[in-house]
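User: For my dataset I need records formatted as: sequence, then structure tokens, nothing else. Please produce one.
Assistant:
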Amino acid sequence: MNSTPDFELLAVTIQVEGRPDMPVRLAPAPERGSEPPPAPLVLREGAEFRVGLKFAVGSGHDLAGLRFIDERTRQGVTVGHQEILLGDYRHGGPYEIVLPPERLPIGHMARDVYQVTGTFVDKEGRILGCETHSFEITKDWPH
């Protein structure tokens, strides 16, 4: 699920300085499960990156206290969890938010595929949207 009548997730991008923005191909909804999952994005270990979010707010009502919850797992184990307050939004948009920078871990043990689940929640705790994707940490950038 990546949208409700009150919220529509339009795009997610991974931004690394000096490289083109990498659009995240959002995983298909479970009811369309016949599509294979998207291939993981390939990121170099130690790279600093930002996540860009683009969304619209439906005409039903304004959103208060919008939060983005980012959870990352590796081989089924949670390795990262953060909640970021995005703020209040009037109906309309699209709105574009770039999250604070993060640095990927370095070393042989960090090189693996990570699953990411991003969830958008309002101040009442209603889940408005959810996206899933994966990335792979490698020694070097792909050619």
